[in-house]
Structures are given as structure tokens and as C-alpha cells.
Amino acid sequence: MASLGLAYSLFPYIVIDRLTIWEVAAATESLQIIFYGVAVTLPAIIGYTIFIYKIFHGKARELSYE
Predict the structure, then answer these.
(1) Residue 40 CA to chain centroid, in angstroms?
(2) Which of 25, 24, 47 is closest to 34 using CA atoms?
(3) Which of 32, 13, 33, 10 has the alpha carbon at shortest distance from 23?
(4) Residue 4 domain-assigned?
């Protein structure tokens, strides 16, 4: 909560009284490239995670020292 309060009180400055959020943001073209990269990569990661979970679900047994 303290971190959120500090961030709210400093808004819109990233560096106090020097740089705002809009001054430090990347160019629009760069942000679009990053967006498209995330739009492709994130579903692939989520799909792979679901696929692996389905493969290995239920394979492990409780550890026993008998």
C-alpha cells in the first residue's frame, strides 16, 4: 500500500520534477512492435503450459519411504 501511495503521489513523474511518463515512453512504432511480439509469444507460452500440464497431470505419486 505504501508503494502504491508513493506512486500515486508522484504521478506523472518518473524522476521527481524532471521526467514525466510521456517523456520517457518509447516511440509509438517501437511499442507497436513490442505489442505484436507479445501478442504472438504470450498465447504460445500459455498454450504450451496447458499442453504440458495435461501431459504430466496425475503422473506424480506421493513420496513414500517404504
Answers:
(1) 14
(2) 25
(3) 13
(4) no
The domain in which residue 31 lies consists of: 25-61
Q: Which DSSP helix (H) or strand (E) runs through 25?
A: none
Q: Looking at this protein, which amino acid is placed at residue 28? A: T
Residue 17 inside a domain? The answer is no
Q: How far apart are CA 8 and CA 36, in angstroms?
A: 30
- 39 domain residue, yes or no: yes
Ordered mean pLDDT values, 10 residues apiece, the chain (66 residues): 90 86 89 96 98 87 80
DSSP-based helix, strand, coil % in the chain, nearest 5: 65, 10, 30
> Which residue carries 518509447 as its cell?
26
Separation between Cα atoms, residue 62 and residue 56, nearest integer Å: 14
